[in-house]
Amino acid sequence: MKISLNWLKDYVQLDASVDEITRAITFLGFEVEGVQPTGAPKLEHVVVGEILTRARHPNADKLSVCTVDVGPAGGVKTIVCGAHNCDAGNRVLVALPGAVLPGNFQIKESKIRGQASAGMMCSPDEIGMGSDHSGLLILDGKPALGTSINEALPPGDTVFDIEITPNRPDALSHLGIARELAAWFKLRLMYPQEKFHGALADEGPRPDLLAGVRVDAPEDCPLYTAHVITGIKIGPSPGWMQERLKAVGLRPINNVVDVGNYVMLETGQPLHAFDARKLGGNQIVVRRATDGEKIVTLDGKERTLSSRMLVIADASRPVVIAGIMGGENSGVSDDTTDLVLECAIFKRQSIRWTSRKVGLTSDSSYRYERGVDPHGALEAAYRAIDLIIETAGGRVVGPAYRIGGDIPWQREIVVTHDYITEKIGFDIPAEEMRAAFEALELTVTREEETEHPARGPAWTVSIPSWRDDLDRPIDLVEEVLRLYGTEKIPVTAVTSPGLLVDDDPIVLFNRRVTDYLVGHDFHECVNYTLRPAKEIATWVSQTAAQELALANPFVEDQSHLRPTLITGLMESLRLNQSRGVTVSRLCETGRIFIEHNGQNLECAAAGFIIAEPVGARNWLRREPADFYAVKHHVGAIAAIGGVDLNWQPLTPVIGPYGWQEGHSACAGDMADGWVARFGLLNLAMVKSLGIEGKVYAGIFALRPEKLSAAETRRRYSDFSLFPAAWRDLALVVDTAMPAADVEKTLAKVARAATGNAFSVEAVSVFDVYQGKGLPDGKKSLAFNLVFRSSERTLTDDEVNAAFTKIQRDITADGKIAIRA
Amino acid sequence: MQDQLSALLAKASAELPGLKARPEFEAAKARYVGPNGELTALMKQMGTVPKEQRPAAGKLINETKTQLQAQLDAALARIGAAELAAQLGPAVDPTLPSPDVGPGTYHPLTLVREEMCRILRKVGFVVADGPEVETEYYCFDALNTPSDHPARDEKDTFYFPDSARFGNVSKKTPEEKYLLRTHTSSVQIRTMLKGPPPIRIVSPGRVYRRDTTDATHSANFHQLECLYVDRNVTVRDLKALLDYIFASLLGKDTKTRFRPHYFGYTEPSFEVDLSARHLPKVKKEWIEIGGCGMVDPTVFEAVGYDPDIWSGYAFGMGLERLAMLLYGIDDIRYFYQNDLRFLKQFA
To answer: What is the mean pLDDT of residues A469-477?
Structure first.
């Protein structure tokens, strides 16, 4: 909200500099978003002059030498000027020698590049009128030569743009801010003195102007007051009022409307004036709207109302959306002579709901939503009546209405010096705390000794009706601290007792996975969680996609939760490729959302892609990545997540996924709490994204709860120190038969063959062959078998015997043959 | 015999240095010292040597054998060295670049987050985590945010349809809606509900606001919050933590200052400014870095802690903002584009 310094000075004698006041407002807890000087500051020896001639400075291209006539202030002066607009004929402000400009800039006669200069022509920022430094301030309207700046320009003011936190509606007014500053600077707050105190004109009631006021919805309108002022004359408001309104960003309209705004900005209490003659039936009814009822508000828009909304109506139609905006049908116009002045209290929640529903906010609704002092309404009405009579004439006639208003307010908080000290952790003398309360008009009604007199007294603090935010002792701690100065909180070393807890398992998982992937040359990425619907459909079923949708997306391409990390990485890949940046390995950790049994599971996930490094040309060739490279990385990540992929069945990926059939695999199930997918991304999908080259990818996701399970400690198992015996065996099987199945069968047969005599330490495939020398549809898998005993060196004979038996038994079911 | 031995040695020293490969060598070795070798043959002649000459002859043979063995060893060493040399190929040009990709890089947000976590870990904070999909209770109600508070508006917060179900995100009441958390403070609530004080956690994480994406706003961004609950925690302790964090991050002479402010879940509340002299591209003396305060008694009541016994503080800040200030990055969108030229600058 904008606050004028001149205006503040009506209520508090502020002598402090603008900087000190800015600091005070800031440390009182209101952020100062801007400080704008307006008008001209008080300056001496700065006068109006007219540029007579302009010539180039003989020694400087960018400077001009001007002759300037300052009239009675000293005649014609020669002044060097650097501005672009120092053209002959312009009337400008001239700072003569002896002038001291803002920032303690002293003007003297001087020589500039060898040329004498008897003063300076001023740009707006040089005389403290804003930040414009682009050229001289050119004066309009030919003010007389030699006139002082303070006569030629409106008087200076400073406007603070202050952000008022939602807990402090009392500060949404000049009086409110003045109260705070008075407390800070230890000054007295001067309230405006009302002349009108409810006395009505002698001529008797005027039911022809207002016959009745009825409040049908007292729960939403605890107080409604209406005063009738007759015989007013609409015209412009006085200059001082217009200046103030303009200073804080309001457009002056007419005396009545301006008074309403003025009093609202002074006291924080919104007011509304009706033209009495436009109130149908001379009635005011405060009621709920009927569904579908319509009103054209002052901004010219038709609004449709509903039955939860509060309106001010006349006998037949709504004339105001209560507390928010008036209707065109009842406002003050140039020919208005009789006014009904409304000053009311509306319920915050009602105003907020309606304002949001109608999509309409105003200075009035802003204040009602946050809360208006329930006991300040009548005084604000009287203040407005004073100002209306002062600026528009007229007199208050009966009947005056006041409906409701018995809003209970009595609040006392008991707080001890000890309590406050305990919360802040350092000492502030008791007198200083008490003074802080009093300065903020939080009256201390009682001061008592406590059980521990040494720890200071207990205070009973009476809370004024405008400070609804103060309700508990802790709230008073903040008040003390605010006035003490939060900059003065003493510096101490941090204390740190250990709590014997470790980081969350998800955090450890993410950290270890990222370390692993970055250690394997991946670049860690961060992508948005919200993805477009179209993309989701490539990765999950339609029903699953529906589950991921937001109710209220902000933009179309961020409408769904991500079910995978791959799409984001692909987008990063595409962006880099399109910018001509060669990139191959990208990774990300983060949350993804996986549908399972009709509900979403929020999962921790780690994903990566390995793309062909398009555009990279190297003097030395490296083998491109392949399926088994990503299998390796997924296995490593799964292991970090507590899953040993070696023992998990792998199946081909099926469904509407982005994976290439026959070149990808998956493992796990959300029923077990985890899932892994890896392999080649669908070539067509990759191409459709505008990405060049093949992309391999892998992702591992798991339910966070799964990580929480305590890890079982590994147990050491003994290993043999005797030499191993090796045998190789090539087997021929159908091409479709997975190597893992053959390996499993072979291992089983081998274990049976060796029995308890010695062990089969490893069975591993070392060659895969298909083609010449083998029948169609067959492939050869060559295995290496490692035998070892934990007790002795094996003899050739016993190994051979076992190996022979293996060769016989492996062919038993007819699916596996020995390669000749 | 002496002549024969000398001849043998001469022959060996002529032949052995010329041998190129291991098989040749093995053959030559057999010819000299093998069971049928020439030296072996000569040794067998010892029997025919007259008895009185035997010591001299024996000595001679031994000397010859030693010399021959030395020659063989030298030849073998030479062949071995040649074999290794053959494995080498031409010398490398160490100035040529490696064709391998990498090294990998950590994202700047990770770097900043981890640095903050390390700093906080040193003073006893452990990293806590919680779901990004939250419910109204954990995100708002428990944090003293009334139901008609503007922050809860559908204009500002992402909600899920009433039909949405999240199997591993618990609701407090069946009626409440799922939403995307607007701050990581929900982690504080879940942590406090899990167990009794004392608690000292830092919760970094992703949060969501329904906002236009521009140079300083992003639909999702990251926060980092600290929560400490214990007996007799004071404003002064909170200030000490903030001073410690930023002195650790930016140097001992870095200062912080508190400005009174308002947050629903803390009382009193402050905004935190940081002395900006160590930050690149910041011309102001002070720069706002986060918000903090003493945990509001209402929040303690919501999680079942007795506010007469327990007190605590909370501090929160935006990670992107911190990273932007630390590195001098001027557009938040760069964090989410993952241009390699950006990512490589921070490792």
So the answer is: 96
In the predicted model, is pLDDT for residue A398 greater than 90? no
- End of a domain among B57, B88, B119? B88
User: Is residue B101, in this structure, part of any structural domain at all?
Assistant: no
Report the number of distinct structural domains present in chain B: 2
Per the CB < 8 Å rule, is A526 touching B236? Answer: no
C-alpha Rg value of chain B to the nearest Å: 40
Shortest CB distance from A477 goes to which of B103, B158, B268?
Answer: B268
Q: Round to whole Å and give the CA distance between B274 and B256.
A: 5
Chain B residues near residue A524 by CB distance under 8 angstroms: 104-107, 110, 343
Q: Confidence band (pLDDT; 50, 70, 90) for A709?
A: low
Contact A348, A369 (CB under 8 A): yes
Specify the pLDDT at position B104. 95
Give the model confidence (pLDDT) of B197-239 as tens digits: 999 999 999 999 998 888 888 889 999 999 999 999 999 999 9
Q: Does B286 touch chain A (CB under 8 A)?
A: no
CB A331 within 8 A of CB A357: no
Q: Is B15 part of the contact surface with chain A (CB cutoff 8 Å)?
A: no
ipTM of the complex in this document = 0.88
Q: Which residue has the tokens 């001023």?
A: A122
pLDDT band at residue A94, thresholds of 50, 70 and 90? Answer: very high
Q: Which of B31, B56, B88 is the last residue of a domain?
A: B88
Domain match, A172 and A242 both:
no
Residue B332 forms contact with A (CB below 8 Å): no
Contact residues for A383 (Cβ-Cβ < 8 A; gap 6+) = A192, A194, A263, A266, A267
Give domain status of residue A306, yes or no.
Answer: yes
Residue type at A54 in one-letter notation:
R
A521: nearest CB among B103, B106, B148:
B103
Domain membership of residue B100 (yes or no) is: no
Q: Given an 8 Å threshold on Cβ–Cβ distance, is B101 in contact with A585?
A: yes
User: Confidence band (pLDDT; 50, 70, 90) for A710?
Assistant: low
Q: Give me the CATH number covering residue A84.
A: 2.40.50.140
The answer on B196 and B58 residing in a single domain is no
B22 assigned to some structural domain: yes
Domain co-membership, B82 together with B155: no
Nearest to A93 by CA among A108, A103, A81: A81
Interchain pair B237, A492: CB under 8 A: yes
Whether residues B243 and B151 share a domain: the answer is yes
Pick the last residue of a domain from A383, A404, A425.
A404
Q: Which domain holds residue A767?
A: 725-818
Q: What is the pLDDT of residues A664-676, one digit of tens each?
A: 999 999 999 999 9
Q: Is residue B234 less than 8 Å (CB to CB) from chain A?
A: yes
Coil, strand or helix at A368? helix
> Are residues A554 and B208, on separate chains, in Cβ contact within 8 Å?
no
- Give A712 to chain B, closest Cα distance, Å: 22
Q: Show the domain range for B51.
A: 2-88
CA nearest to B198 within chain A = A499
Determine the average pLDDT of the residues in B63-77. 90
- pLDDT value, residue B150: 78
Number of domains chain A contains:
6
Residue A124 lies in a domain: yes
Q: What is the mean pLDDT of residues B123-148?
A: 92
In degrees, rounded to 5, the angle at the alpha carbon of residue B30 between the alpha carbons of residues B29 and B36 is 145
Whether A28 and A55 share a structural domain: no
Rounded-to-integer distance, Cα A200 and Cα A202, Å: 6
Do A443 and A577 fall within a single domain?
no
Q: Which residue has the tokens 């010292």?
A: B33
List own/partner pairs for A639-648 with CB under 8 A and 24 or more apart.
A640/A509, A640/A512, A640/A513, A640/A516, A641/A509, A641/A513, A641/A606, A641/A674, A641/A700, A641/A702, A641/A706, A641/A707, A642/A706, A642/A707, A642/A709, A642/A711, A643/A668, A643/A674, A643/A676, A643/A700, A643/A702, A645/A676, A648/A676
